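Re: How this chain folds, sequence and tokenised backbone to follow
Notation: Tokens come from a learned vocabulary of local backbone shapes, not from coordinates.
Start of record: The labelled sequence and token lines come straight after this line.
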Amino acid sequence: MLLLGSPVLLPVTGNEPVFGLPLEVWYAPEDEPLTRVVEIYSHAKRYIFVAVYGLTAPMAVKALVEAKKRGVDVRVLTDRERAADEKQETALAALRLAGIPVKVNQHDNLMHLKQVVVDDEINMHGSMNHTTSGNRYNDERVDIIRDRAVSVKARDKFLSMWKDETRYGEWKSGK
């Protein structure tokens, strides 16, 4: 178990294990982390659960649609106010057209989580949204943890949000 606030700090410069966890750390703009995330999407076999505030990058939309076509269970949670943005609405409409369910928060606060879980094996999180700016221009970070226990915990959190009909509901296009 990773303990936050532990006095032991290890430098992370790439793919070194931290507290026994295999961790990759990618920074934008230099590493173009969304490119690495999309590559992981291309290898998903069972599911991709995405909880992200901003989702506008064509490469991310395309990768999720391709995964859905391969039979992968793809689901997206995002923020309802952000979903009203024209670029995000276009991206979400493309996902829905491909049969990918999209839910947004119904509560008054932000759905600001930036987390992806793939196949109970990979958990990705950090500051980066699935946007071109987040990949190529902003100062952002994505951590990719390849650990079953951490990924299952993240999956369970995603599914609890997904099933919470009071706090999350189906996204409907404003167009």
The two ends are 46 Å apart (CA to CA). Strands lie at 17-18, 21-28, 47-51, 73-78, 102-105, 115-118, 122-126, 140-146, 168-170.
